[in-house]
């Protein structure tokens, strides 16, 4: 018999906020983490750090604020640490001197293509958790969750991302048993821009009911 999964213990992170009104969505639904894409113009969800600060002013104090970046420079890490974020989520490479600059916990994101680097980062005390994503983050595509069964849990945050939506999130939690699910494209408006509160609500119902 497989391990029983208590979905009520699974936290929810909504990533890629771009508007102040989305803070109210997260407050109303008691979301656990909020993510902001910074310094990455390739993403349609990219916003300035000033815009992120504005949105964060409207977030409930219990929601953890996460800066999401790709291979950041030292100056960007410093700006993030001075802007009221609780976590930094880093995709891509992290230079050792850049990691040393982080004064808040770091979530290291891994794509299917770079899982072989997991051990190198997992032993670093600055790394507070891991985000497991598809080969192309933000694409709305899932990946083979069985890959994660080979990773030993070490007490750090174990976060599942990659194409999660109201239709598959419950199945994903049952398969992986993550500490948190990370949703973005799966809760966007049908035109692909901005968050849809009804879709976020459906995620919450799937996880918490």
Tell me what you see in this structure.
Residues 1-5 have low confidence and may be disordered. The chain has seven helices and nine strands, in the order E-H-E-E-H-E-H-E-H-E-H-E-E-H-E-H. It has an eight-stranded parallel barrel, surrounded by four helices. The longest helix is centred in the last third of the chain and has 12 residues, at 197-208. Helix content is 27%, strand content 21%. Helix 3 links the parallel strand 4 and strand 5 (87-91). It is an alpha/beta fold.
In short:
The chain is of the alpha/beta class and 209 residues long.
Average of the residue pLDDT scores: 92
Task: Report the sheet with the most strands, covering strand number, pairing sense and barrel closure.
Answer: 8 strands, parallel, barrel
Unreliable runs, pLDDT <50, ≥5 residues? 1-5
Identify the overall geometry.
globular
Strand order, sheet with most strands? 1-2-4-5-6-7-8-9
Strand proportion, as a percent range, falls in: 15-25%
> Residue share in helices?
25-40%
The number of helices is 7
Give the SSE string. Answer: EHEEHEHEHEHEEHEH
End-to-end separation? 23 Å
Query: How many E strands?
Result: 9
Task: Give the C-alpha Rg.
Answer: 16 Å
Going by helix content, strand content and strand pairing, the class is alpha/beta
């Amino acid at each position: 018999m497989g391990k029983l999964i208590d979905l009520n213990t699974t936290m929810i992170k909504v990533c890629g906020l771009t508007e102040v009104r989305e803070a109210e969505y997260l407050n109303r639904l008691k979301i656990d983490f909020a993510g902001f894409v910074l310094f990455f113009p390739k993403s349609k969800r990219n916003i300035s750090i000033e815009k992120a600060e504005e949105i964060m002013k409207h977030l409930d104090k219990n929601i953890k604020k996460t800066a999401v970046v790709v291979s950041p420079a030292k100056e960007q890490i410093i700006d993030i640490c001075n802007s009221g974020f609780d976590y930094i989520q880093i995709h891509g490479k992290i230079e050792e001197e850049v990691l040393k600059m982080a004064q808040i916990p770091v979530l290291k994101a891994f794509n299917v293509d770079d899982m072989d680097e997991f051990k190198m980062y997992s032993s670093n005390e600055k790394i507070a958790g891991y985000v497991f994503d598809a080969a192309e983050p933000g694409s709305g595509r899932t990946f083979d969750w069985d890959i994660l069964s080979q990773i030993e849990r070490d007490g750090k945050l174990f976060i599942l991302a990659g194409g999660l939506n109201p239709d598959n999130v419950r199945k994903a939690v049952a398969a992986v048993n993550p500490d948190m699910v990370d949703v973005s494209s799966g809760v966007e408006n049908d035109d692909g821009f901005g968050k849809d509160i009804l879709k976020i609500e459906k995620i919450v119902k799937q996880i918490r009911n």
